[in-house]
Write a sequence for this structure.
């Protein structure tokens, strides 16, 4: 499986607490901060929940 580069493009201010926790669990801190995570079902589910806040790119 490949890795995914996840970038926070919108602020989590004024978002649901569950969405804030998901963004924090992914390791994202501030807007334009990026992390590389393993591509698996659990991560895909988390990304789906906050898809409107992030940008995802596949990294090889």
């Amino acid at each position: 499986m490949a890795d995914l580069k996840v970038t926070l493009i919108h602020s989590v201010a004024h978002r649901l607490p569950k969405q804030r926790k998901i963004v924090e669990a992914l390791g994202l801190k501030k807007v334009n901060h990026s992390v590389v995570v393993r591509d698996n079902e659990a991560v895909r589910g988390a990304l789906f929940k906050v898809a409107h806040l992030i940008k995802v790119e596949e990294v090889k």
Remarks:
- The chain has one domain: 3-59.
- The CA atoms of residues 49 and 56 lie 13 Å apart.
